[in-house]
Amino acid sequence: MTKPLLEIKSLTKHFTSKQGFFSKEKVVRAVDGVNLTVYPGETVSIVGESGCGKSTTGRCILRLIEPTDGEILFEGNDIRKLNEEDLRRTRRDMQLVFQDPFASLNPRKTIGQILEDPLIIHEIGTPQERRRQVEEMIEIVGLSKQHLDRFPHEFSGGQRQRIGIARALILRPKLIIADEPVSALDVSIQAQILNLMQDLQKEFHLTYLFISHDLSVVRHISDRVAVMYLGKVVEVADKRSLYEKPTHPYTQALLSAVPVPNPHVTTQRIILEGDLPSPANPPSGCTFHPRCRHCMEICRTTAPPVRELAPDHFVSCHLEDADTIGSHT
Ligand code: SF4
């Protein structure tokens, strides 16, 4: 059986905030006990509304934000227990692609310098060897050697994201966490970047953890999908199972808003009432209950357990049988 590349167990990130000097400290439960397994070579997406904790989860995995609790096993080693030196070495294998490629590229450095920096930090190669690797990588992402002497502001959004991907890839990582990598781009450019990522995945045997609010994009790129709501994963399944038979009422509502490119198929939009509650004051029981059209008495008081309703299809909901909920058509 294939061993997971990444296993997240009960990952928790709580922030504390205080409004005024005399006010009580509030705990914001940004990530609240997330479990997720990612196998080598697959693309697992995390989806959910803005503020659901998906980006914080990604940053906790890389320890760019220190988690409050939980385990993050990368190739079986808990990266929360690594010392500075071992963490630095492990980070070579885990890279991040940012949403806003412009903000993440140093405007005062040339593209050549930006791509060489990770190699210098990890003490890889001589200057000549590094230059060769940088030239090779810029061509792999569809740009040319001539671009290496230019600055980030001289590129379009799509080109800048290609550079962001090249910078993540130059260390030849095993895992790439891509945080909304195409949401700042035009739709036509989005497709190009997604196709590039898929090509690179095959060529370099990459594993992706793809974070997005856009279910159309997620459908294009994922093998499995985890749906997050208010810091928790409420449903995880392979793409086909999730899109064809979404089981959690929140997943059903999200999917009902995705346009279907077929004039003969009509979809019934499920309108979610109210806004995402504050993670500083989450509802009791099932945190989705104030917005759920299937809410029962038990939902107001008792958090639902995670159950496997079909092979590898996990749901956190009190409704016993998926068929009683009805599926998105
Ligand atoms: Fe809705 Fe209850 Fe399921 Fe929560 S547990 S999603 S409130 S039916």
From TrEMBL:
Keyword Signal: no
GO molecular function: ATP binding; ATP hydrolysis activity
GO BP term (any one): transmembrane transport
ABC transporter domain location: 6-255
Keywords: ATP-binding, Nucleotide-binding, Transport
InterPro entries (UniProt xref): AAA+_ATPase, ABC_transp_ATP-bind, ABC_transporter-like_ATP-bd, ABC_transporter-like_CS, Oligopep_ABC_C, P-loop_NTPase
PANTHER family (alphabetical): ABC TRANSPORTER, ATP-BINDING PROTEIN, TRANSPORT ATP-BINDING PROTEIN
Homology family: Belongs to the ABC transporter superfamily.
Protein name: Peptide/nickel transport system ATP-binding protein/oligopeptide transport system ATP-binding protein
Organism: Brevibacillus centrosporus
